[in-house]
Amino acid sequence: MSRARVMSLCMLFAFGACVDHAPSWADFVANDMTAGTGESGDGGAAETTSPASTSDEPSPATGEPEDTTDATSTGEAGSTASDAELVQPRILAVDVPAKVHLAGPVPVTVTTEGASLVRATLDGAELELLTDQGGGVWTGAAPCYGAVDNGAHVLEVTATRGPLAHVWPPVMFEVAAPAPGDLAWGRLGPSGSISRRVVATPEGDAIEVGAILIDGALRPSIRKRRGEDGAEIWAEGTIVLDSREGAVDAVALTPAGEIWVAMNVRQADNKWRPRILLLDAEGHETGVEMPTDAGSTVRGIASDDAGGCIAVGFGASGYGDTDIKVWRMTAEGVAVVSAKGWDHVPNGNQALKHTFDDLAFDVVIKGGTAWVAAASAGEHDGVWMESRGVLVPLDLETGARLDPVIVQEVSGGWRQGMYLGAAAHPDGVVVVGYGATSDGTSQRIELALYDASGARIWWVPEAAADVAYGTGVAVSAHGGVIAGGVVKVGGVLRGVVLGRKGLVYEHQFSSGLDASAVYGVAVDPWDQVFPVGELTSAGVRYARAALVRQ
């Protein structure tokens, strides 16, 4: 297959949910950001929790309070009194809901006398210490992650004071959450808009980035949606981040709650330039911005533990090929590298330098290493001109390449592919993209998990279709993998959300004749899924965000 044909296929499946909107290679190099598709819908699930209280004379279901017992010292600072001088702690009541229907923190309230510390376990696992509210009342929370926790659970509570303890009988509660894949809510953006990526906040809300249509051109935008119902939170609603044409293509949260965004804008000279800047928690510019030049495109960004960022994309090398580009800024606002290039050179063979076109789409930080999800088109086996997904480890601080560089494996006649999204997983790094036949006429979403040595330890190819590609990936608290993407179903392109690796569900972003696409997914602190993308209805494109139960 010719190099032009390979790169054309790369662009077709990476950047257009609708074939009619897919940019040509020339458009792509010029970074025409207007390509795309979309979706809508609504729905929800109501929460109903009835409190179940155990008092000093609990019901037979919970048993009688146990006698006070001596316990191993809790190491309470400053406790020098003898046992006789200590006040015997007592638990008077433990309150939890009898039934839980939605993911989230399950409230726990414990009423005590004489306790200096109250702790609890859920199904034998230690929870965070309960908080003293005064007057003998202590509060805390047990986690519920949705349908994965459906069934009965046991909460055990202990109150201590120095070496003395009172253990309450086990308290039972039940989780009966909606089925995985159920739609909680769906929200449309303004007509002509698009959403590219999403990130979940620690509070369970969603920050959605993309572009809105103003005076006939897309402008970079950001909005925050409430996790409960998808309503916009900020007083300004959707915030336009640049007056020039363009879109925000990546977003990341800092540990302090500030927001890194990576966008591409068209300058007055008609050249596209990346903008990488730090916003405050309300979506306003802080004055921290990475210096950039025109000529490159940024596609992915990640925040480090200190609040700095690393961003990735692609641009011309100056030698006739396209290279991965890397930008790095510290938490102190110090620019480290700008558009630093990386060129795929298989086995260090310098004769092949600048013979591969390399493009980066996402980046994730794990263990001090920045892992870049990308694609590389060239003669991978010395004969075949093909596109393959690559996962490139870089030194977080310098952008220098580390080992090993991972190349998507061939599987029978499935020789082509790209990696378009990445996420940290307890066992390594998980990537999503697509695999394709040699001629590109059949595609499938592919998910793969690689460990630090570069070994592929898990791999899932989805069903084949005329068009199918994964765009974003997230990981649940239990190690499950959630992928977003696009699949052609019944002649219509539809956004999909897939639960895999211990999760088994599929959610379609649209129904009927409405075309749609999912470009990004994120999980909230309780593993509920925020997918974002677009929906096209009656020929009009709309940004769409949703909450999908898990």
What does this structure look like?
With 550 residues, the chain is mainly β. 3% of the residues lie in helices and 53% in strands. The strands form nine sheets. Strands 2, 4, 6, 7, 10, 11 and 12 form a seven-stranded mixed β-sheet that branches. β35 (481-489) and β36 form a beta hairpin. The protein is globular. The protein starts with a helix and ends with a strand.
Q: Topology, please?
A:
Blueprint: H1 3-15, H2 25-29, E1 51-54, E2 69-70, E3 90-97, E4 99-100, E5 104-113, E6 117-122, E7 125-126, E8 131-134, E9 137-144, E10 151-161, E11 164-167, E12 171-175, E13 183-191, E14 194-200, E15 206-214, E16 217-225, E17 239-240, E18 246-253, E19 259-266, E20 272-279, E21 285-290, E22 296-303, E23 309-316, E24 322-329, E25 335-342, E26 357-366, E27 369-379, E28 385-395, E29 406-407, E30 414-425, E31 428-437, E32 443-450, E33 456-461, E34 468-475, E35 481-489, E36 492-500, E37 505-508, E38 515-523, E39 529-537, E40 540-548
Parallel strand pairs: 4-12
Antiparallel strand pairs: 1-3, 2-11, 3-5, 5-9, 6-7, 6-10, 8-9, 10-11, 10-12, 13-40, 14-15, 15-16, 16-17, 18-19, 19-20, 20-21, 22-23, 23-24, 24-25, 26-27, 27-28, 28-29, 30-31, 31-32, 32-33, 34-35, 35-36, 36-37, 38-39, 39-40
